[in-house]
Here is the input.
Amino acid sequence: MFHVRNRSLYVERVPVGKLAGLCGTPLYIYSQAQLLRNFNEFERAFKDVPHVICYALKANSNLSVARTFSQAGAGADIVSAGELYRAALAGFPPEKIVFSGVGKTADEMRYALDSGILMFNVESMEELAALNRVARSLGRKAPVAIRVNPDVEAGSHRHISTGTAENKFGIQKRSILEAYRTARSLGHIEVLGIQAHIGSQITSARPFLALLLVLLRLVDELSREGIRLRVVDVGGGIGITYHRESPPSPSEIARSFIPLLRGRNLKLLFEPGRFLVGNAGILATRVLYRKHSGRKRFVIVDAAMNDLARPALYDAYHRITPARSRPGRREAVDVVGPVCESGDYFARGRKMVLPGPGEVLAIENAGAYGFAMSSQYNSRPRAAEILVNGRRWDVVRERETLKDLVHGEK
Here is the structure.
């Protein structure tokens, strides 16, 4: 819920400039209303079939953000013991938690089994055998879905495509029947479902339909072998609009999914992350200096690639809006940070009214893979995080101090 009123940028009913002045910059700011709007859009779309929307904590693992979703009825998709710990603190019921990832350790498996999670998304035969051993040592059965690599092209950036033959994720489609036969034969594995995840920032509904058709064909093949699944997990990946993309809405995907699922005794799981949090957050940053270098004009801000890595990693586009707009001639500038890397930038050749030192800019659509991917590179303390609810706002993560930079070191 970001909007401009009287030339000032607001998050819900609070001016961004006010928050930057009170809390300092760089500063992540999230709208709770937008978080809930995004989740409820998903819930409404799939209300006609049994389903669980499992929030992918990797996108934004802040406890207050996660708690917003747990209190709304979401489950959680986790990829580490740390995310399981966060999910528990945020109040997600263990029976709504799924554990994904190609490299689960025995300790993580043990922790998840002790927690009573819904299921493990198993990604290799060796992982399946390891999970069986851990479950046997605890005297219980491990509920699993096997992740199939469906060889479906998602059309996203190669670094975030996960469902084609050259990706490290899942078991190849041609080997999946044998994988399920093996799983059925193991004494401490409970075969619960099938899972796939084809990528992130997907901007078409077609790959999702193609994926579901692959999974349902496999469900039917397995049923003929006497292996009856109860869960179909299609992962996440619905994109958002960063620039000119037109991603599908949950309801658009639901229109093709629901006729295929109706009448089947299957529960649908989705694992959205970016869709739920991406457009609900901004990174507020303050202009430090301006400079010319040859034909280039630079605007140097106090946020850097350690705060928001997506432009440096993926050449990702983020809109940049002044916290207080003013008239003036627009010119092409590079918006860059203080880190000693040429890749430390937020925009190149971006046309804007030239901001002056001290002005606050908002880097939009920074709610997903923003703070979650931040670091202390160049020994820079990480940013604070704010959650806004109407006129109220709370600091939901304190800004790190210089002392925090060396915590635990000798």
